[in-house]
Amino acid sequence: MSVPHVDLVGLGMTPMSLRPGKTPVELATQASGAALADAGIARGDVDGLLVGSSQGVRPDRLGVGFAAQGGFADLRLLEHVEIKGATTIAMIQRARHAIATGEASTVLCVFADAPLVAGRGAGSTYAQSGGNNGTRGLERASGLLGSVPTYALLAQRWLHVTGTGAEALRSVATTARRWAQDNPHAVNREPLDDDGYQRSPMIAEPLRLLDCARPVNGAVAVVLTGRASVGTTRVRVRGAGRDHPVRRRRAGAESWFGGGGRAVEDALDQAGMSRSDLDVAELYDPFSIVTLVLLDEYRLTGGVPAGAFVRDGHTGPGGTLPTNTGGGQLSGFYLQGMTPLAEAVIQLRGAGGQRQVPDAAVALVGGIGGRLDHHAALILERAA
């Protein structure tokens, strides 16, 4: 079936704050206004609105009520999308489908979060996710609070299975920081060398503080349309795919790995492209180990072990596959799947400034949710 062209024509971002301040609704309103202005349209031109928010039941969580709060009306499409870290790509898929089938013509997708609250750290906010029942309840009773210790277990397992040394984590962190130094939106821009990484405190072995993403209060919004008259700078959605392994985490099967590649394969097949066509890869990287796992499982290294691929500079400036070119979530900012999407749009628009990858025309955007339980992929291309 022929899919009509659907383009990203607007990008809006708030400043990324490390201090308590605006609510998610206020941040979403600001980012949405910037995205609409970037696309050259008004709220009345939008007939679809998709919202995403961080998981967990929180009083200020962004929901479909944002339509009224943000000044939208007469919508043909209005949904709250939730697949954890895969949510952003799911929103893009949903918007693309709606535009292709005529359910809507111009769709705004927005994600906002404000985990930094006065008197409480972001860690305590995220630690409440997952609930107290079943497997998560057992983990909580055993002291596995939040994502850091569970991803530390994942990291230990991956390093063991692949025979990779823990120094590979350091290579990911220092490479991300090199990219972030030229990203004005990044919250960690100070130079980082190997010694600086080693001085970073251990949080849950083998993950140090600098192996973990930096949560921020902020928002990102994008506008998608099938209307040729809307927008002047276009990034085309060429392919999309998802993969949900639905693991049971029981003996006799691998608990962490062996899934996700189908999402990339489907996206590439839909785009009529191969991995050799990729100019940049923007991957979800809440922890340094995830970059290594995804490079491996998405088969992006040409058969080179992921640790060596990063160590030898292939993912850094001037590398064969520049990856997380804004510093990712490790050194850039953590707004779940909007972090890699926003950077892909910036690169394909040629708006990356000092960090711009020359002649970047095709980008892979990867999103994961849970503990590599949900995988989503987009292939984006600079439109002629």
Automatic annotation (TrEMBL):
Pfam families in the cross-refs: Thiolase_C_1
Domain of life: Bacteria
Cross-referenced InterPro entries: Thiolase-like, Thiolase_C_2
Organism in which the protein naturally occurs: Mycolicibacterium monacense
Record domain Thiolase C-terminal: where: 262-382
MF terms (GO), sorted A to Z: acyltransferase activity
Name of protein: Thiolase
